[in-house]
User: What shape does this take?
Amino acid sequence: MKKSLLFALCCLLTCIASALVKPATVFCDHMVLQRQMQVPVWGTGTPGEKVTVSFDNQTVDATVDADGRWKLHLAPMEANANPQTLEITSNGGESFAFTDVLVGEVWLCSGQSNMEMPLWTDNPRWRNINGDKFAAVGGNPLIRVARMVPYKWLPLPSADFPMAWNVLTPENAPSFSAVAFFFGHRLQQELDVPIGLITSHWGGTRIEPWTPPCGFDSVPEVADIAHWVNARIPGHPEYFALIDKTRAILTEWQTAFNQAAVANQPLPSAPVFPEELAPMNSHQQATALYNSMIYPFVPFAIRGAIWYQGCSNLGDGEIYRQKMQALFNGWKLVFENPELKFYFVQLAPFNYGGNGLALPIIWEAQEQFCKDNEPQVGMAVINDIGDYGDIHPHNKKPVGERLANLALNRTYGRDDLKPDFPRPASCTFDGPSCILTFANVTEWKSTAPDGTPSANDFEVAGLDGIFVHPNTVEMDGTTLKVTLPDGGKIFQVRYLWLQTVTSTLFNENGLPMGAFRFSQPVTEEDLQNALSNQTLVYKIDLCQAGIQRGKPANYLVDNSASIQGKVKRVTYFLRATDKQSDTQWMLVGMDAFTQDATKIGIPTAVSGASFQQKVQNLTVVTNAPGVASKTYSEGNIEFFPNNYHVTAKLNLPGNNGGIYDFDDSPGSPLDGYGAMQVHAFTDKLTLFAFNNFTAGTIADFGFGNSTGDHPDWTFSKNLSNYESVLLEVYVALE
Assistant: This one.
């Protein structure tokens, strides 16, 4: 009996203690509050209890709501370097007094390991150049830092994080983020106000874990991630909908299982449990770090954020732009600051291995995100201070200072600073040349030996998609003229389009030009001229092919046996004319995926062709609706005679395992349905598809994604809609 009473008393005391008024953990001694903005102050307590906050000659009250939460706002304040005390009291008797509180500018500093890299450690590979010297003189009583350590991740948001604010001293500076250190010091020196820096970073992390659910909800292109997130949130409509659906499926299966067991019949396989409802198992999963390392100080008043991340999303390609948009949108919402500033670092060159063109696509995605959100967003280009052999460049001082200059110019009105890198403004194609004009440059400075633009930094291509260095790059003031070496017609130009390149062109402020590319529209006449320089291997009308199982395709032209030399590029040209005599055409070129010319045509079983893989330097030129003429660093092909199913083979990002799309798996039988498909998987796009080869007029064919149930045209049975579909296969030889 005594034990029961004691247990009940402990439970009662626990409940009382948990209901006491308590401010959010971000409110501590030595903190900096944001100037010139309303400052939220919030916490938890007993419903109905009155809370009073006093600071800077203000006294503001709030009442704890039915959910046990309270929040109020201090009116905007001017910067104040004189220490003050923030007092929080309640009519229940609780009181808090946070001392040495300043008012100034507050910034969040987040990302992965390049934001994490400290000023100094005993490890020579994990410290800033001369970081010990910077730390020794880096103490500043007007810079306060809050570090989100220890790192942790959570499946759902939690405000329970032991935060602390500290004055930046020579003793704690060595372990502090080098980028944040140099950023904060420059702001403090130039603005002469207190600076608060909250660092929340984790090496090797992707962008998705840092993004709140509302961020994913705001960007249609990442709806698949939004669904995965929302279906895991207890109480969310998508959570309830998935539970109801799963319950119905399991109930149906259980009934069928019991019936089969009683009847001694084969038992049905258990249904697949939805991955959305499975427990989170990694800090790399969407929202996992937001829940633990951002949410605890939401919605603390901050001016903005600096961000250095992207290496872990290298394989994302163009969709990284949308993921950055989701992060930015989400942070603006959760911090209740639609004017939130966001300045980030474009990744430095580095030899990642593998596809050397993947990094330029991320560079392009980062720059386009910046353009989409200027002037609220700015990008620091650092391709001049990278290290091809070290993913963590050790000179973080210019990184932090370039971010600070963006903030000083765009946020704080320092028009005398020019923080923007040279950016191409226009590209005019003129036969064998193109003329480039630029913004943010009045005078070029070159590090090339002769002081002129280096032709090796540029690449140009004709319609064949084969890039070569230009013959010349001529400078006329700030305008550049780039010319094809063979005098042919130029269709594409790109600059620094490789992971291991460093800019040799700088503006008058010493800022490097970043990677870029341009292309021009193409006519069918251009196509024919370009194809005349390549070797025709196969020609066939798919509507008249009459392909039979166990037999080769009936090509109108078959030159495969006569191809001699190394194949550099493979090009597919299709011209489809429908029953209304409307013609659509598409040219798709790629780096050679095989040297066997007998295996680049229709992948019938007898051909021995079977390719389920990525391809490099994918060039698309077309007039087909819904497909853009553009170049991708990589795509993928599904060329095989097999039956196939929806399970992903390559685990490409964005694949939908419930439909036939750009990432399916071949199966049995070998001589089955068959697929000849080319995809731009970064856009979740089928470029062209020819399936079910032996089905005659009910085979599948289409350009772009099908509007039916399956984007890759599987089961569309629509070849009879066309009078002819002429397929020509070409190769370019070295």
